[in-house]
């Protein structure tokens, strides 16, 4: 009975989110409350355990989001992000494809640290016009930018912090090195896919010509106002270097601390005299940028608490354990072929309904923890790049003037292929 009720709730809210009647920000808390009612939780426990405690369950994740968004703002205010993009465009000169690859590579590097719609808007407003000025078709420019964003985001700290929560590591525990190793494998797969996709798409589009009304040089001169020191250009990768560097020597460094050090380094190397003003403004703007993600995390925390109620786990665990996940073929087929279910906040979306399903899977121990986490990392790529409900997808589509579903249609095939290859590698390593 409870299982049927859960299925009804999932289908109802999946339909409401799919039809855009209810945003995920509201759907997740509503689902959590309805699931708690289904489990016959007393009213006060619904308020205390589900709403109050659930909203702070993922506090480390969304504090990391705020810290990362603040650093993103620092890099924009100090001109570091703009300078990196400008140098990449200058490096390519009059060779459109080389410039495009340079800009995609820079986008990959920037989004290992940047996050939030504000960062997408800032970087996209610089990169996309330059790409389109090279004669790259508008839809292709948007697709390449989206692929580059999704590639860099594999190493974004917000995902690593979420993975820590899913693995239920305590505060002093180190992140297993297999997580970063598998992220590196996914990064390699995405880079290869991105390059092949760009080459094939460029060939189909014919010769790329500098035929836009506004030339690349005009754009670069207009965008660049000040010179940024060379040392400051290392700011985007500093948090990652600190995090993995400390991990290498067996020391734990939280991403929040790494972001703060990165922000201080960025202002110190660019304009230390105005550092207090820059940091203060960036902190406020960073909180604005990170607010949607933080609200989503609060809803996810509530849903996690609801789906981990004893009555719910008792109803769902036998169903999940009945699936033959011990078979590598089933593992690859389930997460690979069903990976589009991560779209529209579906049942495999770790930022939607899927968080509950994955949480129960971890609890039921139907797979080795690293095999399950690797599957989540593969599916996240499909969601992060192809989901038309992502705010970054919507903004990019509006900017280049195409329907957002066009990006889903163009990217779902290659990204699913990356997902399946990643699952094959994960099955051979971790099962």
From TrEMBL:
Top-level taxonomic group: Bacteria
Record-given protein name: Citrate transporter
Keywords assigned: Membrane, Transmembrane, Transmembrane helix
Ranges that cross the membrane: 24-43, 55-76, 96-128, 140-162, 182-202, 230-249, 255-272, 293-312, 318-338, 350-382, 411-430
Keyword Transmembrane helix attributed: yes
């Amino acid at each position: 009975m409870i299982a049927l009720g859960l299925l009804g709730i999932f289908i109802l809210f999946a339909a409401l989110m799919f039809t855009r009647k209810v945003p995920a920000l509201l759907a997740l808390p509503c689902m959590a409350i309805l699931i708690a009612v289904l489990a016959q939780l007393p009213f006060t426990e619904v308020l205390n355990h589900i709403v109050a405690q659930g909203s702070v369950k993922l506090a480390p994740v969304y504090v990391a989001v705020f810290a990362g968004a603040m650093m993103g703002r620092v890099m924009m205010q100090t001109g570091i992000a703009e300078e990196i993009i400008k140098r990449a465009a200058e490096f390519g000169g009059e060779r459109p494809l080389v410039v495009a690859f340079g800009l995609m590579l820079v986008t990959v590097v920037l989004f290992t640290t940047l996050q939030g719609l504000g960062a997408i808007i800032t970087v996209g407003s610089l990169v996309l016009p330059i790409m389109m000025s090279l004669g790259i078709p508008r839809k292709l420019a948007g697709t390449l930018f989206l692929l580059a964003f999704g590639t860099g985001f594999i190493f974004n700290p917000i995902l690593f912090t979420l993975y820590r929560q899913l693995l239920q590591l305590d505060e002093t525990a180190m992140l297993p090195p297999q997580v970063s190793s598998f992220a590196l494998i996914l990064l390699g797969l995405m880079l290869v896919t991105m390059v092949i996709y760009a080459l094939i798409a460029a060939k189909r589009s014919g010769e790329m010509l500098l035929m836009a009304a506004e030339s690349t040089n005009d754009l670069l001169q207009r965008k660049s106002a000040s010179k940024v020191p060379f040392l400051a250009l290392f700011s985007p990768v500093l948090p990652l270097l600190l995090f993995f560097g400390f991990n290498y020597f067996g020391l734990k460094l939280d991403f929040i601390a790494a972001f703060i050090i990165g922000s201080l380094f960025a202002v110190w190397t660019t304009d230390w005299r105005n550092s207090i003003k820059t940091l203060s403004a960036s902190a406020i703007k960073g909180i604005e940028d990170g607010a949607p993600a933080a609200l989503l995390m609060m809803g996810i925390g509530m849903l996690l608490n609801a789906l981990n109620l004893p009555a719910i786990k008792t109803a769902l665990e036998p169903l999940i354990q009945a699936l033959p996940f011990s078979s590598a073929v089933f593992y690859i087929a389930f997460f690979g072929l069903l990976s589009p279910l991560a779209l529209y906040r579906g049942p495999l979306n770790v930022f939607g309904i899927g968080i509950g399903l994955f949480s129960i899977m971890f609890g039921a121990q139907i797979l080795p923890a690293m095999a399950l986490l690797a599957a989540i990392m593969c599916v996240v790529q499909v969601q992060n790049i192809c989901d038309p409900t992502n705010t970054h997808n919507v903004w990019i589509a509006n900017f280049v003037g195409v329907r957002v579903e066009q990006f889903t249609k163009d990217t779902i095939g290659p990204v699913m292929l990356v997902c399946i290859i990643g699952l094959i590698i994960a099955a051979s390593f971790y099962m």
